[in-house]
Amino acid sequence: MENETIVKEIVKALELFSDKIHYEMKEMGNQLRTEMQEMGQQLRSEMQEMGQQLRSEMQEMGQQLRSEIRGVESKLETRIDALKQEMDKQFEQLNEKVDLLRDELTDTQETVDLLSSKTLQHERKLRLLSKQL
């Protein structure tokens, strides 16, 4: 019987030890869950911060790009205006040259008309003179 009592005591001690290990494992599991939840929350928080940083940087880049585009547009508009002015100036010069050529052509036509008229008059005179001879 003594052996039986010893075995019962050993079994009882093992059960107590097993309960203690089971309790400690349960505590470790709870602790692990808590730590994992905290890490998950930390990761979410960091991801949100990174997302906000990215949005902020993207907005800044967008504003910079818009500003640069406006600058390029302004330069292009200035160049286009300068080209328009230059073209207007050249068209005015061309119009002046065309006007001068028209005037010269009109003068030349008048001269040709006068010379033609004089030539006809001389031919008539020559004919009259030739008839008289």
In short:
With 133 residues, the protein is mainly alpha-helical.
Describe this structure in words.
The protein has one helix and no strands. It is mostly helical and 133 residues long. The radius of gyration is 56 Å and the shape is rod-shaped.
Would you spell out the secondary-structure blueprint of this structure?
Layout: H1 2-132
- Return Rg in Å: 56 Å
Largest beta-sheet details: none
Average pLDDT, rounded to a whole number, is 92
- What are the segments in which pLDDT stays under 50 over at least 5 consecutive residues? none
- Helix percentage: over 70%
Tell me the number of helical segments per DSSP (H or I, 4 or more residues long). 1
SSE order? H
Q: Characteristics of this structure?
A:
133 residues; mainly alpha; 1 helix; 98% helix
